[in-house]
Design goal:
The complex is a heterodimer of chains A (174) and B (678). Helix content of chain A is 80%, strand content 0%. By secondary structure, chain A is mainly alpha-helical. Chain A has one domain. The longest helix of chain A is centred in the C-terminal third of the chain and has 37 residues. The radius of gyration of chain A is 20 Å and the shape is elongated. Chain B has 678 residues and is α+β, with helices and mostly antiparallel strands. Helices cover 53% and strands 24% of the residues of chain B. Chain B is built from 14 helices and 13 strands. Chain B has a 13-stranded mixed beta sheet with strand order 1-2-3-4-5-6-7-8-9-10-11-12-13. In chain B, strand 12 and strand 13 form a beta hairpin. In chain B, helix 13 crosses helix 14. Chain B is elongated, with a radius of gyration of 58 Å. The N and C termini of chain B lie far apart (237 Å).
């Protein structure tokens, strides 16, 4: 839990800094996939591994996963219909038979209509959402963070000892 | 100096981090290694403890697992030395299993399927003594959940019904009836209730009245002298030698007058006879009625003594109660466990589920199976072996030779195309159990899932089984050889039907009773039942099903008792007959004698008078006939005489005419000759 909170603070800190907009956008996009996928599935493991190995912002991913779980929950009927259409497609039947009897792949639970629908939706949306999130972050930094930093209140706060202590602590322990 | 140092520190560019999070991969690797070590070093022992704990909670008695080994690379598990304590006898185990081992196929595991090529359960034994007394779970606190209460209720249901339904003293009641009655006293008490006796008294009075009446009527009948007088008068009437026809007429009129007088007397006699016949018929009917009443009285007397009809079924149930109750207790124990742990879709649990605050579950969607023939189903136990070998070095070993196998246990029989089949055969020589044969077939390929099992034991020894123990009577199987065959069918996991057929041969009963007469009766009765059976049948929807026990032992005992009872009944009948003979038949015979006397006397008298009347009537008729014939003879003689005279005269006339004709003819002929010149 501490790790998750730490990641969430890091997310806020990074969001308000000048760097890492790609990491944040990638984290949010991965969170979208995590939110749409069932917890015990191969795709969850794969995305978590990617997040873990590559420098993708974990806090953003977890926060997005939490948020997109609700979206996925609301989108279940759509996912079901979409997954059903894909799984019942006769031209894909042989492929699914092979996939079903292939090693590893059945762990994706692709043979469930909602899982399949959610997977299709999330995989299709993830790259688009990556660029959308990236653009939104840059916009946020210009419109919100820069303006906030130029306010007198922020400058006055920056001049306090508490802020100095905080920056020192942050530099030492991260 | 310090200023310049501070500036250099602030301006020092941060080291740019690469895209891979190396600082996290190393700790992660360490964690994985630690987990691996845990599985290698501690997992097996923890699993063993968990298995013991779960077993203890589930069975309510200590469960020991001596060894548990798992292997990740082989995906295998091996459990050795399983001991399940008998909660009713903690010094012994309900079940011992030497070893269970099986391994999963990695090829299937990688496909998210569980395929076991071969599993083995070896060295199974039952009722083995434990090294140390097993721990038994203390009873649950009083405050129990509705579910638990329901399970307990089910467990006790059958036992309670067996306790209240049948009375242990079934033979005591019958034997008391057979030995403790004093019929003669009872019959004496019933003497005044005999209807036939009352009827006979009334009949006798009526008969005496009739006798008197008839004697009077017989006295009034026409006397012989009267008929004789009529005869004399008839003799005097002229019946021949009539000179004039008027005389004939006179005689006939006189005879007819006498005959009319005689006929009047005959009619009187006949009317009396008819009345007498009617009366005699009424008397006979009365006698018949009395005889029927006597029969009815005998039946009423027998009914008063309530000769019992023995219920074979209740005898069998009572006798087998002590034998079957421990087994019923076990069945109910496991029935309760089934009720407790089976999911609600299989067992209808009447209690409402606890409502918890929880988010609405996500939709389940539709899960498709893209199986193909000869692919792996989600779970598939291809073959499991089970065995138990007799330990020949230990003469007291209770182990037996058991061999069994289960094939094709799977979650999708349509993919494997095979039903699940299990079979176990073997024997336990030390326990004198031979020919154990268990077969199971579970077929889920059709619409209705059917589980079919049969279990049989060719023979098993039964020694010293108490079947009844009351203050008056004690009974037991001193020894017997049993055989068992049972069939169970479970349809759609709910509809259960069960039939168990127990055969008992060479049954040696030991009967002792306070009353020696009862003992001798029971010994005789049970001689009929050295071979017997017990059939238990049950049907119902789980967890509710009732077992019904029947046995030909009841019938055999019934036959034995009937034999004894019939002898008693015959004895009782004889006594009643003797009583009836003594009290009623004498009276009856006397009445019949009186009736016969009356009949013979009246009939003789009437017959005599009738004969006389008929004789006189005949005489009169003869007289009339005589007169008639005399007249006819005379008339015929006169008629013949007149006829002869007429004939003579006619002939004379004919001769005269003939001669005249001949003369004339001659004349004519002469004339003709002359003309012709002859």
């Amino acid at each position: 839990m501490t790790l998750i909170f730490k990641q969430l603070f890091n997310f806020l800190k990074m969001l308000n800094s000048d760097t890492g907009h790609n990491q944040l956008a990638a984290g949010l996009a991965c969170g979208l996939i995590l939110g749409f996928a069932p917890f015990f599935s191969l795709q969850t493991v794969l995305v978590l591994t990617l997040i873990f190995i590559f420098r993708i912002q974990m806090g953003a991913a977890f926060l997005a996963a939490f948020f997109f779980k609700f979206v996925a929950y609301l989108a279940d009927p759509v996912s079901h219909e979409l997954g059903k259409a894909v799984l019942e497609n006769p031209s894909l039947r042989d492929l699914f038979v092979d996939m079903y009897n292939m090693p590893i792949l059945p762990f994706t639970r692709f043979n469930n209509s909602i899982v399949m629908g959610s997977l299709v939706l999330s995989v299709a949306l993830a790259p688009i959402m990556f660029f959308v999130f990236r653009a939104l972050i840059i916009k946020y930094r210009i419109l919100v963070v820069d303006r906030f930093k130029s306010t007198k209140a922020w400058k006055a706060f920056k001049a306090t000892t508490i802020y100095n202590w905080y920056t020192k602590y942050d530099a030492l322990y991260g | 100096m310090s200023e310049s140092k501070t500036t250099s520190t602030a301006e020092k560019p941060k080291k740019r981090k690469g895209p891979i999070r190396w600082e996290a991969i190393i700790p992660f690797t360490i964690i994985v290694i630690l987990i691996g070590l845990y599985f290698k070093l501690f997992f097996d022992s923890n699993m063993r403890s968990l298995a013991e704990f779960v077993g203890y909670q589930a069975t309510g008695a200590e469960v020991n697992v001596h060894q548990l080994e798992t292997s990740f690379t082989n995906a295998s598990i091996r459990i050795a030395g399983i001991e399940m304590t008998n909660p009713d006898k903690p010094t012994h185990n309900n079940l011992n299993i030497g070893e269970i081992r099986f391994s999963l196929l990695w090829d299937a595991l990688l496909r998210m399927k569980f395929v076991i090529n071969e599993a083995a359960i070896e060295n199974i034994s039952f009722d083995q003594p434990r090294k140390q007394k097993g721990k038994v779970k203390p009873p649950e606190p009083e405050k129990e959940s509705a579910l638990k209460q329901e399970a307990e209720k089910l467990k006790n249901e059958t036992l309670e019904s067996a306790k209240t339904k049948y009375d242990d003293n079934v033979f005591g009641n019958i034997a008391n009836m057979m030995t403790g009655s004093s019929e003669s006293d009872e019959i004496k008490k019933l003497e005044n209730k005999l209807v036939s006796k009352e009827k006979m008294k009334a009949f006798e009075t009526a008969l005496k009245e009739k006798q008197k009446n008839w004697e009077e009527r017989l006295k009034k009948l026409p006397k012989a002298s009267e008929f004789q007088a009529l005869g004399d008068r008839l003799k005097k009437v002229k019946s021949s030698g009539f000179s004039k026809p008027e005389d004939v007429q006179k005689s006939i009129s006189e005879v007819q007058t006498i005959m009319a007088e005689g006929q009047k007397k005959i009619d009187e006699v006949n009317a009396t006879k008819n009345d007498f016949d009617k009366d005699i018929k009424l008397t006979d009917d009365g006698l018949k009625d009395i005889r029927a009443q006597i029969e009815q009285d005998i039946k009423d007397l027998q009914a008063h003594f309530k000769i019992p009809k023995i219920d074979a079924k209740s005898i069998a149930v009572t006798l087998f109660k002590r034998y079957t109750n421990p087994y019923f207790a076990k069945i109910n124990h496991y029935k309760a466990l089934l009720y407790k742990y089976a999911p609600p879709n299989i067992v209808d649990k009447n209690d409402k589920p606890e409502v918890k605050i929880q988010p609405r579950a996500r939709e389940n969607g539709t899960t498709y199976e893209f199986g193909k023939l000869n692919a792996y189903p989600t779970f598939w136990l291809k073959k499991a072996l089970i065995s138990s070998k007799l330990n020949s070095s230990d003469p007291n070993s209770k182990n037996g030779n058991l061999k069994g196998e289960i094939t094709d246990v799977t979650t999708n029989q349509l993919v494997t195309g095979k039903p699940t089949v299990a079979s176990v055969t073997g024997d336990f020589p030390s326990e004198k159990i031979e020919g154990i044969d268990f077969k199971l077939k579970f077929d889920n390929r059709t619409k209705d899932a059917i589980i079919n099992t049969s279990f049989g034991v060719k023979s098993f020894a039964i020694s010293a089984k108490e079947i009844m123990n009351t203050p008056d009577i004690a009974m037991s199987f001193a020894s017997a050889i049993g055989g068992l065959r049972s069939n169970l069918e479970l349809k759609n996991y709910k509809e259960l039907s069960l039939k168990v057929n127990n055969e008992f041969k060479d049954v040696d009963y030991q009967v002792t009773a306070k009353n020696k007469d009862v003992e001798s009766i029971l010994v005789n009765v049970f001689k009929e039942a050295r071979t017997t059976n017990m059939v238990a049948e049950g049907k119902g929807n789980l967890p509710h099903f009732d077992l019904d026990i029947s046995s030909d032992l009841g019938e055999r005992i019934q036959r034995g008792f009937e034999k004894e009872i019939n002898a008693k009944i015959e004895e009782l009948k004889k006594k009643i007959k003797e009583y009836v003979d003594a009290e009623i038949n004498k009276q009856k015979e006397q009445i019949e004698k009186q009736v016969n006397e009356l009949r013979s006397k009246a009939e003789g008298e009437l017959k005599k008078v009738q004969e006389q009347a008929e004789a006189q009537k005949k005489l009169a008729e003869n007289k009339i006939n005589e007169a008639k014939s005399d007249i006819e003879n005379r008339m015929n003689a006169e008629k013949a005489k007149a006829q002869a005279e007429a004939n003579r005269r006619l002939k004379e006339e004919e001769n005269k005419a003939k001669k005249a004709a001949e003369d004339e003819a001659k004349k004519q002929a002469e004339k003709l000759k002359k003309r012709l010149g002859f």
